[in-house]
Amino acid sequence: MHSLVLKVDDGFYTQLLSFLNQNKRQVNILEDIEDDGFPAISTDEAKQRVSSAVEEYRSGNMKTVPYSQGMDEIDKWVNNL
Q: Has residue 1 been placed in a domain?
């Protein structure tokens, strides 16, 4: 078993606890998450990927969806877990 340590603002901590308590079914899924098998990447590689994504967005070549549509899709996915 591994531990996860988060340092968060007091106000966010209260919201996080509330969320976790209201979503126990989804939170319990976190216990079952295992290594996805993908190798870790370096900080430099991560920065390059983010830079590339930002450039793709700025150039208009990135396919995006409205925020609410994306959140709806995430909610459907979480509810089907």
A: no
pLDDT tens for the chain, 81 residues long, are 566 777 888 888 888 888 888 887 776 666 666 666 778 889 999 999 999 999 999 999 998 999 999 999 999 988 887
Q: Amino acid identity of 68?
A: S
> Would 5 be classed as within a structural domain?
no
Please tell me the total count of domains within the chain.
1
Contacts of 8 (CB under 8 A, 6+ apart): 16
Please give the Cα distance from 55 to 57 (Å, whole number): 5
User: How many angstroms separate the Cα of 53 from the Cα of each of 3, 35, 39, 48?
Assistant: 31, 25, 20, 9
pTM: 0.42
| Cβ(80)–Cβ(29) below 8 Å | no
